[in-house]
Design a protein that fits this description.
The protein is α+β, with helices and mostly antiparallel strands. The chain has helices at 45-49, 151-154, 212-219, 223-226, 238-245, 261-269, 315-339, 354-365, 413-434; strands at residues 26-27, 33-34, 59-62, 77-81, 84-87, 91-96, 105-113, 123-129, 132-139, 143-149, 160-165, 185-194, 230-232, 257-258, 281-286, 292-297, 302-309, 343-347, 371-377, 387-391, 394-399. Helix 3 (212-219) runs parallel beside helix 9 and helix 6 packs parallel to helix 8.
């Protein structure tokens, strides 16, 4: 069947943020979505695209007609087509027979997302291996996604279950196309290989933002050093874990703590003068499994991790040490606010308003000309990773989602890194323009 010419691209399809133009997907004469076949179906896709083409994968799967995928697929797949197969619905399963032992592995997926502007601008994907989240990605064009699977997950007995979650799946007929299949990803290939000992985690992040390696190339600074230029103001541990993933371990009062915005504003107004008063401190156990001791400073509603498990310390003796620790962290925060050299980062799992962000920025401004990056989770219809100035020294950034409170490590690292680099560049450009 003769294909119609490509559809004209709208402004939003040509990038909109300075990136490369997004390829327009094609529809046939019956307005059915068409996916391009692989470049050369006779040649394994991983030998063209893998990071180390000379290393044959432990397992490689080619999808579609003539491929070997049928024996590995569970629920959530459409029928085979020439060189690819579509996911069907919002969850798709892959079962691998072999589970290589001996360390971490690298999972690669060659995918093309179903996107049609303006209704479906991107596809989000979460990858679980044996119910452990190994990564998330945001896909707007064909690309190879790569995720590290921890050796501990690989070492579990039995077949390896991969689950792809793609909540943005839509039927083309619902967005002006043809066909009722609920589509998300056109999958061309999969490979599983052992990670070389010298392979950086940085090369294994996937999504619409920056890998650690890419951030280092963009900034010319080692990731651990670069992330010391940012400080979390809460509302929880997520940004502190972003810094940890980059190898940065700064001392910060609110890095692994929670404090409501009204309490934070009151603390800033009073210069945290009541912080660390022993009569306001308590200790309690929280968490599943072996619980952890949490410290509470009731003067400002501050709650933070001790990183000490039940039975590992004398809780009252440990609590007595916290007054001194809090005084040190208070002094350091006030020094950082007075020097005004860092980008302070604030997020809230509860919906926050611009007025609240402005109030926090104004409170920081009483110490010096500070910069605040306020981060929110974007609307599902909006591509995240955007940073916009609201006022001098106040920026609003959007990520795709925040980590759930029960699984704080399940964060979208690459988008956090993109927001940091953008905010830092905008801050520096504004200071150059003002002669500061």
């Amino acid at each position: 069947m003769t294909q119609p010419p490509p559809q004209p691209r709208t402004k939003s399809q040509t990038g909109g943020q300075g990136g490369a133009a997004r390829p327009t997907q094609r529809f046939d004469a019956r307005n059915q979505l068409v996916a391009e076949p692989t470049e050369n179906p006779k040649r394994p896709w991983w030998s063209r695209n893998a990071r180390d083409a000379a290393t044959e994968p432990v397992q490689a799967i080619s999808f579609g007609i003539g491929g070997n995928d049928a024996n590995y697929l569970g629920d959530g797949w459409s029928g085979p087509e020439q060189g690819f197969r579509w996911t069907l619905g919002r969850t798709s399963e892959i079962w691998l027979e072999r589970s290589p032992q001996g360390g971490d592995c690298r999972l690669e997926l060659d995918v093309l997302p179903f996107c049609r502007e303006p209704d479906v601008p991107r596809q989000r994907i979460t990858v679980r291996v044996r119910d452990t989240v190994v990564g998330r990605a945001i896909v707007t064009t064909r690309r190879i996604l790569a995720f590290r699977i921890p050796g501990a997950v690989m070492a579990e007995p039995g077949p390896l279950k991969l689950q792809l979650e793609h909540p943005d799946a839509r039927a083309p007929a619902d967005v002006g196309g043809g066909g009722r299949r609920v589509l998300a990803l056109c999958v061309h290939g999969l490979s599983l290989r052992r990670c070389p000992a010298d392979e950086l985690d940085a090369g294994l992040e996937a999504g619409g933002g920056l890998t650690i390696a890419a951030m280092e190339r963009e900034t010319g600074v080692a990731a651990a050093e670069y992330m010391l230029g940012f400080e979390s103001l809460g509302d929880n541990c997520e940004f502190g874990l972003v810094q940890r993933r980059c190898g940065a371990e700064p001392m910060g009062l609110l890095r692994f703590a929670s404090m409501s915005l009204p309490n934070l504003l009151r603390a800033l107004e009073t210069r945290f003068e009541k912080l660390g008063d022993p009569k306001n401190l308590t200790i309690s156990l929280a968490g599943r499994g072996v619980p952890e001791y949490m410290i509470h400073d009731h003067a400002y509603g501050l709650r933070y991790h001790s990183w000490k498990k039940a039975g590992s310390i004398d809780p009252q003796a440990f609590l007595a040490q916290q007054a001194g620790r809090l005084h040190v962290l208070r002094r350091k925060l006030i020094e950082d606010l007075t020097e005004a050299r860092k980008v302070f980062v604030w997020k809230s799992n509860q919906p926050a308003t611009e007025a609240e962000a402005r109030a926090l920025h104004a409170a920081l401004g009483t110490y010096g000309p500070n910069t605040l990056l306020w981060v929110t989770a974007s609307d599902p219809a909006v591509v995240p990773g955007v940073v916009e100035p609201i006022a001098p020294g106040l920026f609003h950034g959007t990520t795709d989602r925040f980590a759930p409170s029960s699984e704080a490590h399940d964060l979208t690292l690459d988008l956090w890194l993109l927001l940091c680099v953008k905010a830092d560049r905008m801050r520096k450009a504004a200071r150059v323009a003002s002669g500061a």
